Amino acid sequence: MQISMEKEFNKPFVSSVGKDESSRLWIQAEKVSEGKIKMKILMRSAEKAWTAELTDATASKYYTQYSLSAKDYWNAILSELLSPSENFSISVRNEEFVVEKLGSNQIRLVYAKVDVEEAPFLQCLLSMTETLLETQTELRKSNKRLEKKIVDVTEDKVILQEQLEKFTEDAVTKEELLLSNFLAVLNAKKEKIQRLQDEIEGKGEDDGSPAENEYDAETDVDEGQDTPPKDQPSSSSRPEKARKTDLRDNFDDVMDL
Q: What domains appear along the chain, each with residue ranges and CATH number?
């Protein structure tokens, strides 16, 4: 059976469990293969050390009992060994390494129980110290990489801020230039429209004739007049009357002779 474990569990790690120094356990765990973990357990107060090994052959009865997948079970065990929580209890008693999950009403569910073998205390202590130093070195390298990224991001931020300010200034300058050009064009259009209106009004005044004004004055009717205006002789009758006058004058001149 292939057991999938998380990437961060591929290297040895050291953790501690227990609130009191007298009962504190230091655990070095390493996933040596899929479905197999080797551990070194150290109790400094008693200067005792043990080794233990958890395999899938032992673990299968526990994840089958709790209806868990092999992947979920192994990830839960490794996560708890890497970063112990209050939901689990880890101890060494009766020559056994025991992992228990605290259920409701403080019921303890056994998640793992394997035999332990005594090991040289100083050898286990040295192994854990070396692992801790390696972890510390990796953390320092990681911190340096993060610090460099922070510096790079800060520099990029400054550059981007300067570019943003420049773009803002350029945008304001362009906007002011466009606005001034627009106002100049608008004022020129207004002047042209006003000039055209003045020309139209001046031409309209020049087109008015005195005869039309006189005719308008003669045809005006005072307010309050009830009688209609007298009939004016038509222009067609005037030549006829003039012709009769000329004939009468000629007749009188003949009679005088």
A: 7-119 (2.170.210.10)
